[in-house]
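Quick review question:
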């Protein structure tokens, strides 16, 4: 496996540290991708998304969802069962897990639901007014002269 050093990128750029961090994270997790539990990410509208995670065997009380520093963390811990069960075949995995999703700037979790063995997490991107594109009117020469205030001497 190849190791990349992103130090030159940090020295010669300003404000692109998130891109370098993301590339660092992707390259470091390349060989250790966990596939449990399976999940889907779908785009439901222009600025809305939904993460659906298959959580068969877990109740809503066993699941936890937390957002901290642009990271969505979904955890599951099965409560200890008091009665011993004897399985002839055990194909439904109910092992504890922690799944992390990196959220882009201005993406917030709007809700979550648990139904039919699926955990659905709804996300929405809310771009602040200051970051939205603005249309700038171009003034003609006549308007510029009309708006200029003449300076008068104070003394």
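Suggested answer, residue by residue:
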């Amino acid at each position: 496996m190849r190791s990349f050093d992103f130090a030159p990128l940090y020295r010669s750029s300003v404000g692109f540290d998130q891109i370098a961090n993301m590339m660092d994270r992707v390259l470091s997790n390349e060989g250790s991708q966990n596939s449990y539990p399976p999940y889907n990410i779908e785009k439901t509208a222009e600025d809305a998304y939904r993460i659906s995670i298959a959580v068969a065997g877990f109740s809503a009380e066993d699941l936890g969802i937390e957002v901290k520093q642009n990271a969505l963390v979904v955890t599951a811990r099965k409560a200890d069962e008091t009665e011993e069960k004897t399985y002839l075949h055990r194909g439904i995995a109910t092992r504890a897990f922690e799944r992390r999703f990196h959220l882009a700037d201005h993406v917030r979790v709007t809700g979550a639901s648990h139904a039919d063995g699926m955990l659905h997490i709804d996300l929405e991107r809310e771009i602040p007014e200051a970051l939205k594109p603005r249309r700038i009117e171009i003034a003609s020469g006549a308007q510029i002269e009309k708006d200029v205030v003449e300076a008068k001497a104070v003394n």
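Why it works: Helices lie at 7-12, 17-28, 141-147. The first helix runs from residue 7 to 12.
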